[in-house]
Each structure stands twice: as C-alpha cells, then as structure tokens.
Design goal:
The complex is a heterodimer.
Chain A: E1 2-13, E2 18-29, E3 33-38, H1 44-51, E4 59-64, E5 67-69, H2 74-79, E6 82-85, H3 97-102, E7 108-109, E8 113-114, H4 116-130, H5 145-158, E9 163-167, H6 175-190, E10 194-198, H7 202-208, E11 211-216, E12 219-225, H8 231-238, E13 257-267, E14 270-277, E15 281-285, H9 292-300, E16 309-312, E17 315-316, H10 322-329, E18 330-333, H11 337-340, H12 348-353, H13 362-367, H14 369-381, H15 397-408, E19 415-419, H16 427-442, E20 446-451, H17 454-460, E21 463-468, E22 471-475, H18 482-490
Chain B: H1 16-40, H2 44-52, H3 59-84, H4 92-109, H5 114-142, H6 146-166, H7 200-217, H8 219-229, H9 231-236, H10 241-244, H11 247-265, H12 279-289, H13 297-317, H14 324-336, H15 339-342
Helix pairs in contact in B: 1-2, 1-13, 1-14, 2-13, 3-7, 3-11, 3-12, 3-13, 4-5, 4-6, 4-11, 4-12, 5-6, 5-11, 7-8, 12-13, 12-14, 13-14
The chains are: A alpha/beta, B mainly alpha.
Chain lengths: 494, 351
C-alpha cells in the first residue's frame, strides 16, 4: 500500500532565487525503508521538510494513502500520520520521556490537570509495542544519544505516525547504538510503517534500505532497488564521476621520508615513532579517546614534540619558515575544520584563497579579477556549491569540507595530513576525497591519514596502524579482518 | 545548472551594514533628541531648534564640528585597526591624553614653524604608541589580555599626564591648569578663520581612505582581517601571526596619539588638564557605529560631533542638560550594535 507520494515538487527560496527542488518525485510504501540520497545541497532536507509540513512547496502534489493532501503546517502532516525524527534532538531536556511524548497532546485529569500517570502508561505501552527499551519516566537530560533517538521515534509514533522520516539518524550514534537503531527500524517495518531514510553513509543505506532514490540538483534522477547496488555504484549514482574507487595502492615504491616522528611526545610518558615516505599513504585508525587528536596536533606542528622531534623533509618542523611550510610543503585537512581550516565569518573565497593570498602580485590582488577567477575554478573543481562572496558559515557541513579540500589539495603538496577527511561527506564526496588522495600519492605526495573510520584506512592506506591508548601497532593487511581490527582498537590483541 | 548555483543567501554589500548602522543611529538619535526635548525641557521647540539648526547656523560652528569629528575619526581608526586584528583595546583615552601632552611638550620646545609642528605631531604619535606598547609587548611575549592591560595602563597614563600638566610641566603664567603654549607657528594652520578648522579633517579622511585601501585591497590587510577572525586559521595559513599579535595594537596607539596631538595643536594651542575629554571612549562608539568599516568612520564621527555640538547649543539656549548628549550617545551605541536590529529580515521559507 502506498503511504506517501510527492510528485513534481518545486521549491524556490525567494531570498536567493535558487530552485532547491525542481520537479522532485518520491513515494513510500507500507513496510518499506526508502533511502533518499544525494550530494550535499541536492535538496534532500528540503524535500523531507515539505513531506512533513515544515515547508510549503511552490508547485507539485502530495498524496497520503492515495488521497491528495495539503500541509500548511507540521501539525497537518502529523495529523496525516507523518512524523519527523530530526538529525539533532528536539526533545525538551528538562522533561521526562513520557512528558515529551505527551507534549501538545497531554492527557487530562478532570479535564484540567496533566495526568502524568496516564502519560507514562501510554508511553510504556507504546514502547512495549515496538520493543523500545527507553524508560518513559527517565529525564531526557539523562539519556544517551541512542535513547534520545528512541524517544524521538516514539514521540513521532505517539502522534500516530505510520510514515517516519529519519534525517541522518546515525550521525551522533556509535556503531553499536546504530545497530540497535537498525533493529528498531526493522520492527517498525514489520509493524507496517514506512521509513524515509536520509543518510550519507553508503554502507548503512545498502544494509537497511529496500529502495534508494537519488536527488541531484533538486531533481529526481533515479529510484532503484537497493539490492542492485553496491557502495561503488551508489556513489556513482550520486555523483557520476566514471571512477568511484581510489586506486593505485602499492603501484609505486615509497620514496624518501617526508614526515618523521622520532620519539615525539604524544602525552605523559608516551612517545611515538612514525615515518611517512613520498608516494605512500600511512593510515592510523583509533577509537575516540586514544590520542588520535594528539597525534594530529603533533603532525600538524600545533603541539610541541620535545623531547622528541618531528622532521619534515629531513628538517625539524619548528625550523621551517611558517609561510613556506604551510603554503608549499604541507596540506592539512583537520578534524576540526571550523576552527582550524576556515575563517567561518569571512567570505567563502577568502578561505578558498587563504593559502595562495601572497602568491598574487599586489596590483593583481587589488584588482580582484584573478583571485575571483581562481576561487571559481577551485570551487568548480571540487563541486563546491555556495555563493563565493557569502560567508563560509552559510555553507552546509559537506560543502565546508569541500572548500577545505579544494584549497588544501590544490597543487602537489609534498606532505598531506588528512584527518577524518570524509566526515560529513556524502558517498560521492567521500569517493572524491579518496580519489584525490590516491592521485596525490601517485604523484609522489606522502599522505598521513588519521581516521576513526576503519573503512577510510582499509580503502587507501599502504601501511596501517592502530592507535590504542597512545601506542601504535602496525596492522598486517594479510591477516586483518573485522575481529582482529576490533581487537587492536580496543587493546585486546596487545 | 552550474555547480556554482548560489545556495546561500545573497550577502549584503560590505557597505550595506555600516550604512544600516549609520541610518539606524541617525534615526534613533533624532528620536531620542525629540523625546529628551519633550520630557526634559520646558521649551521643546527652542531645544529642538538649538539641537538641529544651531550647529549648522554659522561656519564657525560647522568648522568646530568638523574639527571634533576629525579627532574622533582618527582615534576611532586606532580602535578599528586593533579590533580588525582581533584585539579589543580599551586604552584609547590614555593614549589620546598622552599624545596631547607629548605634542604640547615637544611643540613648545621645538623650533617654531612647520618643523616644530611635525616634531610635535611625531611626539604625540610616539607617546600614544608608548602607552600602547606594554599591552602590545605583553600580548606578544606573554599572551597577556589586551583588554585588561590596555585599560589599566591607560588609567595609569591618565594619572601621569594629569600630574605632568598640573606639576612639572605646568605653565605658571596660565590661570588654567595647562602646559606652556605652543608657538602659533607650530600649531595646525587655521584654514578658515575665525573658525577653528585646521587640516585635521582632511588628514583624518585621508587616513580613513588609506585604511580602507589597506583592508580591502591589499594582501596584508586581508591576512590581518583573517587573523582577526580566526588566529589559529591564520597561523595554519602561514601568515605572520607573531607580527599580527602586537603590531596593530601599536599602530592603534600611534593613531590615538595622533588624535591627541591634533587636540593639543588645534584650537587649544597646548595641553590642558582633561584635554582628551572622553575622545578615546567615544572613539569606540564611533567605530562600533561604523561597523568596523573605515569608509564609514568619518560619517559616524560626524554624527557624534553633531550630538555633542547640538546638546551644547541646546543647553545654552534652553534648559536641556548638557549630559543629554552622553545619554543619547550611549543609547545610540547600544541600539546600533544590537544584532537583532541589524539583522536582515528573513524571506519567507528561508531557514
């Protein structure tokens, strides 16, 4: 049975004369998980907001269970059985789960007083029906991310939703919590609900979805059976590039050492030795809280290495003239891009051109013509969408990462320090990053890839290390499987 | 569809926000003047006439206003240079005062004439820099908080300047608590006697133009602005962050000192006790109203100068308190820097 259909949806934002949706179509059946994917800025969130009444479309039709519907508010959509679980929790933290579930529809005692017991009973009944573990009497502030997600879903179900729109539901969840969420989605499916699943993570889309619909530039370009896809073909659907995997591993022989950490101080009584040579990618994977951030600071020169040293091209990093090291030698994709890689309140083009600022002759810079042309070229190369003269803070997370990539991976830097470089990117964007890093390796750059995502390391690294409590252990690619990797990351195999 | 489709809201031109601030300030100042006249004056019509008409009735008044705006604009430029580079200095008042005292001292001792004038201006600028230097060096070598150090050193320098004017450098022949008069030939020349107009407004406008060019059209200016917004980012882009951490504070001191020198070498002819008269503090307000945009500084300074001149006139011809201008300026600064009032109205559907 068809639960929801959106046909020919058009939506423009008058403030910037942009057509965010240009005739998008989408439908959802009972008992199905339908993934909505697209590159950053493709129109996914706009379509989701229209489906749940948060935005009103300029044109197009909405039908719920075969009947035409017009949502003037989110409440209209709720009445029609459509619930939204937003990316970031919108629960009232000062209330309990049951109170949040009842908010706006409070059961009354004597027609006037809030009936807490009835609210808790209703919440417990609902949780039991779908097999949710969250305690209705627990305060929201005391809940973990996964329990909050459960409460959000329950809140939607409490309003009678049989269509659930989940926007990036795993973005703040650990792997284990995400698995619990998938089981929960499975139960909702079995109960006949339809789930619209918006995510950037190819693997979970393929694991979870029955169908995948792709939006590109506000238009629906494909709607396919998820079983017919793999990660590569999904990335290709999102951004057709012709080549979706980073290749070239082990093609050339690593050359001279470019980055050497010799007894560099990582923490109290902790030092690290690591060498990255030209033409190779060295990957370091770690779970949060295992000094990966300290290693990043050390390799980027933001943390003193004494009593050890950090050498770049054989010379102590501290002895390099800052301008030469930062602009000519090292490309740095930091984990914290907002504070380290962007001037968030400045124009996009300022952040894009920040590294080549002093390469312009004074007169050429003053005229602005060449810098603007360069900024446009850099942006176009990485598919950065956004007004170049607008502030960087107006860009989406994915586009911010593209901006950083466009600037840092321009040219052929001898050393690339890439820290969680694919975070926040859609599968197409991730594929682009991995390919670009592989290209740099092929051209002789030394790449140090630090990531919390083992997939990044597995895809690209020539040599891999696991970092556990500040100690590096080299991973053997021949005998490495998920179990042994988990053992290295948790210290069980040391 | 191009990959560069504009998805972000169209940014306003760089001058739109300062213009909006100026318009808001002017509108609010007018409203408050009307309100004060209605509430605090027995003859509202006379008060309003004095406020709006009197400052523009004679060339002497207008030149006095332009002259006052010049001191404010130069001092505000000092604030702007520091603010743009991320340093919040509160030392302007002491730097202006020190500049005035040093200029009067040097002007009185140096050979009379243009050389004396130049020497006096240079001393004024250097004295401002000297008062700013401890904050700048503290920032550079010890990471000291500029806000605190600049304020404390400024307060100390005000006390020192008071002591110098009233003590060892006092002119015993003068009934005022003032230093020796600077020879007429070493003062800023009067352009339109009997009015006090000197070349100071032209110099102020030129300095604002230079600052606009520096921040808008040069690589160093752009790098400094980026440093002001995110110091770590600037360091990772290989900018000369060590120089940026102290030099703008010193340049701010030079500009404040120059404003003080203009005060002493203009119509005052020397440094009297309390000569800075809040110029250093008002300069912060001028800079905020101008939205940190050098091109808007002269206009914001003129607005402040008009409020001062208008309230003085209103106090003379009616019973409005001269302190009204202070209250109005404070309210105007608050309103002109309140973000909700400056926000661009959201278009429907824009999130």
């Amino acid at each position: 049975m068809e639960l929801l259909r959106l046909s020919g949806i058009v939506k423009s934002f008058s403030s910037n004369a942009v057509r965010a949706l240009d005739g998008a179509d989408f439908d959802l059946r009972s008992g199905e998980v339908h993934a909505l994917v697209g590159e950053n800025g493709a129109g996914k969130s706009t379509l989701a907001k229209i489906a749940c009444g948060l935005l009103i479309p300029d044109a197009g039709a909405i039908a719920v269970r075969g009947r035409p519907a017009a949502f003037r508010s989110h409440r209209d959509a709720e009445r029609a059985g459509i619930g939204l679980v937003p990316q970031y929790s919108m629960l009232a933290p000062g209330l309990t789960v049951a109170e949040n579930l009842a908010l706006g529809h409070e059961p009354r005692r004597f027609g006037a007083f809030f009936d807490r017991r009835k609210a808790e009973y209703d919440a417990a009944l609902l949780a039991d029906r779908y097999g949710f573990a969250v305690d209705p009497r627990a305060g929201v502030a005391s809940l973990g991310p996964a329990e909050r997600r459960e409460a959000e879903i329950l809140r939607a179900m409490a309003r009678g939703a049989n269509v659930l729109i989940l926007d990036e539901p795993t973005s703040i969840l650990s792997e284990e919590e995400a698995r619990a969420l998938f089981a929960l989605i499975g139960r909702l499916k079995a109960a006949g609900a339809g789930v619209v699943y918006i995510s950037h993570r190819a693997k979970e889309i393929l694991d979870l979805a029955d169908r995948v619909s792709v939006l590109r530039n506000g238009r629906s370009v494909a709607s396919v059976d998820a079983k017919s896809l793999d990660e590569c073909s999904l990335a290709e659907l999102i951004i057709p590039t012709g080549a979706c995997r980073a290749d070239g591993r082990g093609e050339g022989k690593p050359g001279r050492p470019v980055l050497e950490l010799r007894g560099a101080r990582l923490g109290p009584e902790l030092s690290v030795d690591l060498c990255v040579r030209s033409g190779e990618v060295v990957g370091v994977v770690a779970l949060a809280g295992n000094y990966l951030d300290a290693l990043e600071d050390l390799a980027s020169g933001l943390r003193p290495s004494a009593p050890g040293t950090v050498l770049v091209l054989g010379r102590d990093m501290a002895a390099w003239p800052s301008a030469e090291l930062r602009r000519k030698i090292m490309a740095y994709l930091p984990t914290e891009r907002e504070s380290r890689a962007l001037s968030i309140r400045s124009a996009v083009e300022d952040s894009l051109l920040a590294k080549r600022l002093f390469s312009y002759a004074p007169a050429a810079y003053a005229s602005r013509r060449r810098p603007r042309a360069d900024a446009r070229a850099l942006a176009a190369e990485l598919g950065l969408r956004g007004r170049l003269s607008g502030p960087a803070e107006a860009l989406s997370g994915g586009n911010r990462q593209r901006l950083v990539l466009a600037r840092e991976l321009d040219g052929e830097p001898p050393l690339v320090l890439a820290c969680n470089p694919a975070q926040g990117l859609d599968p197409g964007g991730r594929s682009l990053v991995m390919r670009r890093l592989a290209e740099l390796r092929a051209r002789g750059s030394a790449v140090l890839l630090l990531s919390q995502d083992p997939d990044d390391i597995a895809e690209l690294a020539d040599r891999s290390f696991a970092l556990y409590r500040g100690r590096l252990a080299e991973l053997d690619p021949e005998s490495l499987d998920a179990g042994s990797l988990a053992g290295h990351l948790t210290g069980a195999l040391r | 569809m191009s990959s560069l489709e504009p998805l972000a809201p169209a940014p306003p031109s760089r001058f739109v926000e300062p213009l909006r601030r100026l318009a808001l300030s002017l509108g609010l100042a007018s409203l408050l003047v009307g309100l004060f006249a209605a509430v605090a004056s027995s003859d509202a019509a006379a008060t309003l006439r004095a406020f709006y008409v009197s400052p523009f009735r004679s060339s002497v008044m207008m030149s006095a206003m332009a002259e006052a705006a010049a001191y404010l604009a130069v001092a505000a430029l000092g604030v702007l240079v520091a603010y743009r580079s991320g340093h919040f200095s509160l030392g302007g008042e002491g730097q202006v005062y020190a500049g005035a005292v040093a200029a009067a001292f040097a002007g009185a001792l140096a050979p009379s004439g243009p050389v004396g004038l130049l020497v006096a201006l240079a001393f004024g600028a250097l004295a401002g820099a000297a008062v700013g230097a401890p904050s700048a060096l503290g920032r550079r070598f010890a990471g000291a908080d500029v806000l605190l150090t600049s304020f404390l050193i400024s307060q100390a320098s005000i006390l020192a300047a008071d002591w110098l004017i009233a003590g060892p450098w006092r002119d015993p022949a003068n009934n005022l608590v003032a230093m020796r008069a600077v020879p007429r030939a070493s003062l800023l020349p009067r352009l339109a006697p009997p009015g006090p107009l000197t070349p100071a407004p032209i110099v102020a406008a030129a300095l604002c133009a230079v600052a606009w060019f520096y921040f808008s059209k040069t690589r160093q200016g752009k790098a400094l602005s980026l440093y002001g917004k995110n110091q770590l980012f600037a360091a990772l882009m290989g900018y000369p962050v060590k120089a940026f951490s102290w030099l703008p504070i010193l340049v701010g001191g030079v500009l404040h000192g120059l404003a003080g020198a203009f005060l002493a070498l203009g119509s005052n002819g020397t440094a009297v006790r309390g000569i800075s008269g809040g110029v250093g503090w008002s300069a912060i307000g001028v800079c905020l109203i101008a939205g940190n945009e050098p091109a808007a500084l002269p206009f914001a300074a003129l607005l402040f100068a008009w409020l001062d001149a208008g309230s003085r006139q209103a106090a003379i011809v009616s019973d409005l308190s001269p302190d009204a201008a202070t209250v109005i300026k404070a309210l105007v600064i608050m309103a002109a820097t309140a973000r909700p009032l400056l926000k661009r109205p959201k278009a429907r559907g824009e999130s």
